# Entry
Amino acid sequence: MRTTKARHEEYFNFLRSVSLLKELPEEKLAKIADCLEVDYFNRGEFIIREGEEGNTFFIIAKGEVSVTQTTEAHGQPKEIKTLGVGDYFGEKALISEDVRSANIVCNTNDTQCLVVDRENFNQMVGTYEELQAYLKEYVEELSRSDVKRNAL
Ligand code: WNU
# Structure
């Protein structure tokens, strides 16, 4: 049997390895480990669809996903990058208060994502100015690359 405590420790240790969160104090990481959910996906499943409303932030604990986006020039979404363990996604809809701006499609079976809801995301980010500034900057950069590739 895997106890609640063992699971908590596992998530805590994993969160500690995520570069985005490296500046957060341990108590904060422990809180996040307490409030996250785990979601499982198989190859081909959409984790996020562009245009939908979204209230969650994801960190990949296992597996790989593709980021795809529809542009003016193509009817089908095109892959813009892949993300793996320790990478994260879904922050843009939360930070820009907008709908999802790209698709996230699962590439590998038994992919595991740690999921943080908007309230906990705001608590995680809001109290750390550097983290907030970093993500805001990054999200603005994403918007600029969306414009460059003529994303719809
Ligand atoms: C991109 N354009 C857009 C990625 C993940 C985290 C950071 C890049 Cl800090 P959302 C769709 C998600 C979006 C981003 C992710 O896809 N994404 C991109 C792009 O070029 N989105 N519009 N590259 S990977 C990535 C930086 O997380 O958040 O909630 O859902 O819009």
Summary: The beta strands are 37-41, 46-48, 56-62, 65-69, 78-83, 88-89, 103-106, 111-117. Residues 36-148 form a domain with the Jelly Rolls fold (CATH 2.60.120.10).
